[in-house]
């Protein structure tokens, strides 16, 4: 089916089911090959990349709606999503649906609520929904090479800033690194999020001071260099730090 | 005029002007007498206390709308508001307008966007709008004694958590303390926000390490104790720290 006709067909049903003017855009970050990537869809209509966003049902709690959208559009479940910003410029999407007249549900003004999550890509089996020709992880370093719809580039950038703030107040890495990891691997994750290199000595000292790591009796074997110590997260202390924050004061 | 009739009279006009289903609730904190307080209205209708919230115009950017609401409802201008959370449970306000039938604009489901600000109460001249019988600062320690409408107690609690997180990543105090202040006064502000006492030696060491303070050549005179040193914020470094964050890594 033609991608324009597909949207037209869905418009009346959407008016019945969904709240007008409110949408949600989840920014799911993954970490692989020492780099961050982000989960995006390539829509049939216009062939641009978009966040896997959608609308909230009239009889549905907001947070249930966001989880449903991510499941339906990308097959992603069991992700803890955190709200980080609201995108409410009145003309943020005015050109995207310019091929349609104003009766199209999707063309009205939407204030979009942004959520972010950090997840291990290898644990997710992606699906492609009926409106998309692709659903994939795109490395942040490659974002400048693709066409992103509406203000979705700005939403991703703001999500990254929110992730950087979070790393100052919460532990990060559980469910993202393998069960056993080296301090160097953990440092690579922090560097990818912060977008800069960290001094190794400072990082090791600070991360150990958080009290969330257990040093194991094993080393990583097989590299050309000295075998580095392996660590795992101390689940109890990690959970406590998540709840109370890293408490700089 | 009867407060019910007043809402009924406004309902049709509201449908013309405002987006449905979206509201904004600003949580403005003040600091006085070493305690935090929050700006609230007492509505004519039901005589409960509420945040000075409202609706977004169809042709208005979201952030302009929030600023307009705070100006119209409380007389507050020039406040930097930060979005901290969205309140979207489907039944969050279902009982509040139960005296009305479903055609009332105010009775529909609203997803509300929460903003917080920290401001010096002595710099604000409050007004009382046509829907309210009072607009006032209420100390957080007194919130348990008053009736708060809908989920506004939860919104205030979440705003306070957001403020606590912010204090870990951004400097706080400018525009809130007098131009010259003692470290003890700054510590009292941090303690009020964090809701706990801080070790004086640790606090002094950490706050000085941020590099945002200038030690003045004057002392605070007149107390019974040893005259403490006075400080002011270093505006350039403060602005830099605001922009870059306190950078724990």
Please, could you describe this protein's structure?
Chain A has 249 residues and is α+β, with helices and mostly antiparallel strands. Helix content of chain A is 31%, strand content 26%. Chain A contains 6 helices and 9 strands; from the N terminus they run H-E-E-E-E-H-E-E-E-H-H-H-E-E-H. Chain A has helices at 3-17, 62-74, 152-169, 183-194, 200-209, 235-244, and strands at residues 18-32, 35-43, 49-50, 54-57, 82-87, 111-119, 132-139, 213-219, 229-233. In chain A, the strands form 2 sheets. In chain A, strands 1, 2, 3, 4, 5, 6 and 7 form a 7-stranded mixed beta sheet that branches. A two-stranded antiparallel ribbon of chain A has the order 8-9. The longest helix of chain A is centred in the middle third of the chain and has 18 residues, at 152-169. The first copy, chain A, starts with a helix and ends in a 5-residue tail after the last helix. The relative contact order of chain A is 0.15. The model of chain A has no long low-confidence stretch (mean pLDDT 93). Chains A and B meet through strand 1, helix 2, strand 5 and helix 3 of A and strand 1, helix 2, strand 5 and helix 3 of B.
């Amino acid at each position: 089916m033609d991608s324009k006709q597909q949207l037209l067909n869905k418009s009346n049903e959407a008016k019945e089911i969904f709240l007008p003017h409110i949408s949600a855009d989840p920014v799911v970050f993954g970490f692989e090959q020492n780099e961050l990537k982000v989960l995006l869809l390539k829509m049939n209509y216009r062939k641009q990349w978009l966040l896997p966003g959608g609308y909230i049902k009239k009889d549905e709690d907001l947070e249930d709606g966001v989880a449903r959208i991510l499941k339906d559009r990308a097959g992603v479940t069991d992700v803890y999503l955190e709200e980080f910003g609201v995108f409410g410029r009145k003309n943020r999407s005015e050109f995207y649906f310019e091929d349609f007249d104003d009766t199209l549900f999707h063309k009205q003004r939407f204030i979009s609520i942004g959520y972010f999550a950090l997840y291990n890509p290898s644990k997710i089996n992606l699906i492609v929904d009926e409106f998309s020709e692709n659903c994939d992880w795109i490395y942040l370093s490659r974002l400048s090479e693709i066409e992103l719809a509406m203000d979705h580039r700005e939403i991703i950038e703001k999500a990254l800033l929110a992730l950087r703030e979070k790393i100052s107040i919460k532990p990060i890495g559980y469910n993202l690194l393998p069960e056993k990891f080296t301090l160097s691997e953990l440092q690579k994750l922090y560097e990818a999020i912060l977008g800069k290199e960290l001094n190794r000595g400072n990082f090791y000292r600070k991360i150990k001071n958080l009290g969330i790591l257990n040093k194991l009796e094993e080393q990583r074997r097989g590299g050309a260099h000295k075998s580095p110590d392996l660590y795992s997260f101390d689940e109890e202390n990690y959970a406590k730090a998540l709840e109370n924050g890293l408490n700089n004061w």
